[in-house]
Amino acid sequence: MSPHPPGRPQAARIAITPAAAEVLRHLRAQHGPLMFHQSGGCCDGSSPMCYPRGEFRTGGSDVLLAELAVEGVAEPTGFWMSAEQFERWRHTHLTVDVVPGRGSGFSLEAPEGVRFLIRSRLLTDEEARLLDGADAP
Question: What class is the 14-135 domain?
Answer without folding.
Answer: mainly beta
